[in-house]
Amino acid sequence: MDISEKRFLWQKAICEADFTLHNFPFGCGVLPNETAPRALSAFGYYALDLEQAYRLGLLGQDEKLEKVLGQPYLNNFIALGRSVAENVRDALQQNLSLENPSDPELSRKYPWMIPMDQVRMTLPVRVPNYTDFYSSLEHATNLGRMFRPGGEPLLPNWRHMPIGYHGRASSIVVSGTPIRRPWGQVMPEGAEKPVFSPTRLLDIELEFAFVVGQDTILGNPVPVDEAWDYIFGFVLFNDWSARDIQKWEYQPLGPFLGKNFGSTISPWIVTAGALEPFRTEGPTQEPEVLPYLRTQGPLNYDIELNVYLEAPNAEPALISVSNTRYLYWNAAQQLAHHTVNGCNIQVGDIYASGTISAPYRGGEGSLIELTQKGTAPITLPDGSLRRFLEDGDTIHFRGYASRGDVSLGFGLCSGQILQPLQLR
């Protein structure tokens, strides 16, 4: 069995494990012999054509659905409200309750179920706005120790509010889209002036992002105890980072070209409803946060996160294991802080957590942490070393959760690094 066959079976097994009867996430994709994307769900290694399922009477008689399921993005479907999406999930669960997601005959029994290798997944939403937070205490501490050795790793404001910045929505791409190594200004160690070159320190950022499900009016904040009503679901998110470009440019205004060349999201949005069984308490916040950020109850999730690095002509190698439960700032706090000044939000907005690192070695969510700024390279199964990403490398994120007899996952969030363009 060659590498491509092994990769296919690995990806198929992940889909069959992640897209269970409990899950039924939502995405968009192009079906065989068609050119335009449409709304889909997933069950095992099958994409479910929701428009066809509706016409067969399997999703009820809500006429609003008929108008949105054939559209190329989920924005209008999401805007119908979370209850509509949950009704669709309930209908799919009832219709497929006796089926095995690993059954190779499902597409014969149900013409509206298509094997995933015959579907080209596309961006699930048209993204109006994108914000990236900095919500992992472990990640912020690790970087602070690297960049401010001997000093306090956290800046004074970090424990008082979710730090974030506005990213570039136009360069968010769906899993499977290649990422080209970017050019930019870098300042070599010991040099007196910058040089223009491709990044040499290309990195990953393991993140968890939510998709907004309702618009708000400019000037109207979202209270923290109502924030969950505005969150439709979640995706995996890789905010690729050119560390050397970022290091030279980020003061005084923050990330720019070191970030905006590409961010990758997983193609399937797992709904907030599907994730309810996996809620868990987050870390204790000290000192106590201001009243507008105070939350009660389990508002984090217990979702294991895996990072795989696939070198050219090699099998994917697991290089990091983390968990969303370690996020210091939860999604409700992120959204409440984002809007407390009256900033309006829009359906399809994406708000990413920032890199999620665990409080143990091997749980770091970026290569700069995993390799300690390149001084402790990762050894891959073929014996090759990685400090940062090389051309031809592919990164896969996977997130999955299990509690009792209920389990689900997000599928893969993947991207391959292409060599830089030859600029004049």
Can you offer a commentary on this structure?
- The protein is of the alpha+beta class.
- The chain has two domains: 120 residues, SH3 type barrels (Roll), CATH 2.30.30; 289 residues, Alpha-Beta Complex (Fumarylacetoacetate hydrolase, domain 2), CATH 3.90.850.
- 19% of the residues lie in helices and 27% in strands.
- It is built from ten helices and 26 strands.
- Strands 6, 7, 8, 13, 14, 16, 17 and 22 form an eight-stranded mixed beta sheet that branches. A five-stranded antiparallel beta sheet has the order 4-3-2-1-5.
- Strand 23 and strand 24 form a beta hairpin.
- The N and C termini lie far apart (43 Å).
- The mean pLDDT is 97.
Task: Give the helix/strand layout.
Layout (H helix, E strand, L loop, with lengths): L2 H16 L7 E5 L7 E6 L2 E4 H6 L7 H6 L6 H5 L2 H14 L10 H4 L3 E3 L4 E3 L7 E4 L3 H11 L16 E3 L5 E3 L4 E2 L2 E4 L8 E4 L3 E2 L2 E7 L18 E8 L2 E2 H7 L13 E3 L4 E2 L7 E2 L19 E2 L2 E7 L6 E7 L7 H9 L10 E3 L14 H4 L7 E2 L5 E2 L7 E10 L2 E13 L6
Parallel strand pairs: 6-22, 8-16, 9-26
Antiparallel strand pairs: 1-2, 1-5, 2-3, 3-4, 6-7, 10-11, 12-15, 13-14, 13-22, 14-16, 14-17, 18-19, 20-21, 20-25, 23-24, 25-26
